[in-house]
Amino acid sequence: MASSLPWRRVSAFAGPLIWLALVFCLFWAADEWRASARGTEGRFATAASARLMVHNTALVGVAALGMTLVIIAGGIDLSVAAGIALSATVSAWCFREGYHPLFGMLAAICTGVLAGLCNGALVSALRVVPFIITLGTMTIFRGIGREIAGGTPIRAFGKLPDWLLMLERPTPNPEWLIVSPGVWVLVVFAVIVAAVLHLTVFGRHLYAVGSNEATARLCGISLTFTRMAVYSLAGFFAGVAGLYNLTSLSEGDPNSLPGRELDIIAAVVIGGGSLSGGRGSVLGTLSGALLMQVIRHGCRSLNIPTAYEQIIIGVIVIVAVTLDQVRQRRIGRT
Q1: Domain annotation covers residue 2
Q2: In Å, how far are 11, 13, 19, 140 from 7, measured between CA atoms?
Q3: Pairing relation of β-strands 154-155 and 251-252?
Q4: How many domains does the chain fold into?
Q5: Helix (H, G, I), strand (E, B), or coil: what is residue 154?
Q6: Domain residues for 292?
Q7: Cβ-contact 91, 104 below 8 angstroms
Q8: Contacts made by residues 100-109, CB under 8 angstroms, sequence distance 24+
């Protein structure tokens, strides 16, 4: 059993990347076959197409970094999309009112952190499962956003600085960046989160709490502090994602991103994160987020209807969760 442990770790680490490569090659082959039948050139596996896929992954990827921490610690956050929309709305209000751009940016991040802190405090104080707590706060955050916006999106056209708008520019400027600045922001945060998970005591505490809360408590780990810290960090990344959302729409819309929380959670699960807690990785999460974007981009390249695109992603999520449950049962037997 001991000799199989390293193989399990390698499999969990490389699995999402293998699935990503397989799905990419499948759409590539289908696109090339379709193009050759029509006497044209394929448009899926081009540099511009790849840059667009990576760029479109950034918003979900940033938010999914925070969700990775939450799921590793044994929690879940259904309010993440509502928190992103609320952060974008508050930031848009600040820009519209003429506040300094840095203040508008910090307003989005602080709003996200405060929303996450509320989630962590409620989960710790009420001792209700996070699914129910965050389902409730999802509605609360949407309602607060609508109250701030007065029922209509807060428009910030012409108020956003160029350095912030770079987050949503799909092409790199300058060219040597290879991918858009928004993607590089995602990469920097991903490296930081990976370092926190694998090189710090706090990261080890997250895995311990997610694996077995009772044992973690006996080891002296504060469950209250850990929950509040992890949800606050998730809120921070939701606030950053709110800036992506704001620059994309040039307005703060509290009704934006409906259902996007499922994409964010799915990115973690497809990437090997366990809804039972105790397992997950940054590389896996980014692979899961990119995999969903590859499917969407591939379906559009092949003119596959959106309904089938959603069915494919749904099937992949079910398969990922099923494999996770099978893995958990095998570990339990061993």
Answers
A1: no
A2: 6, 10, 17, 44
A3: antiparallel
A4: 1
A5: strand
A6: 44-333
A7: yes
A8: 101/160, 101/161, 101/163, 101/164, 105/164, 105/243, 108/239, 108/240, 108/242, 108/243, 108/246, 109/236, 109/239, 109/240, 109/242, 109/243
Give the separation between CA 31 and CA 42, rounded to whole angstroms.
6
Q: How many residues does the chain have?
A: 334
In a domain, 252, yes or no: yes
- The answer to whether 134 touches 109, Cβ cutoff 8 Å, is no
User: Cβ(281)–Cβ(13) under 8 Å?
Assistant: yes
| In-domain check, residue 153 | yes
Q: Which CATH number does the domain housing residue 142 bear?
A: 1.10.3470
- Distance CA(231)–CA(137), nearest Å, equals 13
7 confidence band (pLDDT: 50, 70, 90) = very low
Is the bond preceding residue 174 a cis peptide, omega within 30 degrees? Answer: yes
pLDDT per position as a tens digit, 179-237: 889 999 999 999 999 999 999 999 999 999 998 888 999 888 999 999 999 999 999 99
Question: Could you tell me the sign of the dihedral formed by the alpha carbons of 4, 7, 12, 16, in that order?
Answer: negative
